[in-house]
Write a structure and sequence with these properties.
single chain; 37% helix; 7% strand; 4-stranded mixed β-sheet; alpha/beta; 227 residues
């Protein structure tokens, strides 16, 4: 799995490996995630390209944020052509962390400021009180412990964001979480991003706020899909 970020996302993927990789999820399926990342991060297009090369025929995912990136449409098209799954977060992966502790709503226009403030103050998230201070966005030690046992709640909150999307016809129950072979027929960018449960004509950059990370946890069998 390729990550746009160089710290938070790889740390989180290692957490999934250590906590659930031996089959400790709801499905009992074992897995091993190999994080792919670079110092100083990658653009969305670079993340898609990197995981495509690293995964060969294995299941491939690219994780990236809205932030203020300009290449997201191209990244989505490349992923659709190559059947690379996407976990897109708007405004950022920080939203996924926050959803472990509370629900959240309201367009953020690519800014993570409010999301991070909420995360620092969230009940049960005391380990995150200094998150993103002194350039520390790591997910280790007490922060990792704080997330444990809250993944199901994060999935539910993320699905609620799909259901409440301003587009009006997005439904988490329409999401696809089963793996797709790399040799499957290519899909259009709109079809591929509709795997998230959003309607095919719901523009990716307008899914604000949203995070597709819940599909990853369901796909891995860590949590069930109740959307």
């Amino acid at each position: 799995m390729a990550c746009e970020g160089e710290s938070t996302e790889p740390d989180y993927l290692r957490y999934l490996n250590e906590q659930f990789g031996d089959g400790d999820g709801q499905s009992g399926r074992s897995f091993r995630i190999q994080p792919v990342y670079r110092k100083n991060g990658m653009t969305p297009s670079e993340a898609v390209e990197a995981v495509g090369k690293a995964a060969a025929e294995d299941e491939a995912w690219a994780l990236f944020d809205r932030d203020q990136h300009h290449d997201i449409p191209q990244a989505v098209k490349t992923a659709a052509d190559s059947r690379i799954e996407l976990a897109f977060s708007h405004p950022s992966f920080d939203l996924w962390l926050l959803l472990h502790f509370q629900a959240f709503g309201g367009a953020q226009s690519g800014s993570s400021r409010i999301v991070i403030e909420k995360l620092r103050q969230a009940k049960g998230a005391g380990a995150f009180k200094d998150y993103d201070k002194r350039n520390d966005k790591s997910i280790k030690g007490a922060r990792r412990d704080a997330l444990n046992g809250r993944g199901g709640q994060a999935v539910t909150h993320a699905q609620s964001l799909v259901a409440s999307c301003a587009h009006g016809r997005c439904k988490p129950g329409h999401a696809k979480t089963e793996p797709v072979g790399r040799d499957a027929e290519p899909q259009t960018a709109q079809q591929w991003m509709a795997r998230s449960g959003h309607a095919p004509d719901c523009q990716v950059l307008q899914r604000d706020p949203s995070t597709d990370m819940w599909r990853l946890l369901v796909s891995l069998g860590i949590h069930t899909d109740e959307g």
